[in-house]
Write a structure and sequence with these properties.
Elements (H helix, E strand, L loop, with lengths): L2 E5 L2 E4 L4 E8 L4 E10 L6 E6 L5 E3 L7 E6 L4 E6 L8 E11 L3 E6 L3 E6 L1
Parallel strand pairs: 2-11
Antiparallel strand pairs: 1-3, 3-8, 4-5, 4-9, 5-6, 7-8, 9-10, 9-11
């Protein structure tokens, strides 16, 4: 069984920083792209950033210059460094990974979500 476990969310003042982590557990063959998404109340889930297994990163426009995604392939972990946080960044942040498992092919997995709240 594969699990994505997130950590690092919390309450921070506007202008502050947080670092989210997401680790993959379970028996897997490999991890392709990993990423972060977020969802605010009443809104659809939106892409924050993704990173390939080779380390190429993509950011949504509103996150460019403030957020940095990185990964440690040996630790099966993806990170999201968030700086200059704004109240509108308040959301539940979800980790995502495309994972290959022997006998199960390539599938998309999600973490349980971690709350980020930015106060003004």
């Amino acid at each position: 069984q594969v699990q994505l476990v997130e950590s690092g969310g919390g309450l921070v003042q506007a202008g502050g920083s947080l670092r989210l982590s997401c680790s993959v557990s379970g028996t897997i063959f490999s991890i392709d792209a990993m990423g972060w998404y977020r969802q605010s109340p009443g809104k659809q889930r939106e892409l924050v950033a993704t990173i390939t297994s080779e380390g190429s990163a993509y950011y949504a426009d509103s996150m460019k210059g403030r957020f940095t995604i990185s990964r440690d392939n040996a630790q099966k972990t993806v990170y999201l460094e968030m700086n200059s946080l704004k109240p509108e960044d308040t959301a539940v942040y979800y980790c995502n990974a495309v994972i290959r498992r022997v006998g199960f092919g390539r599938n998309n997995y999600w973490g349980q979500g971690t709350q980020v709240t930015v106060s003004s």
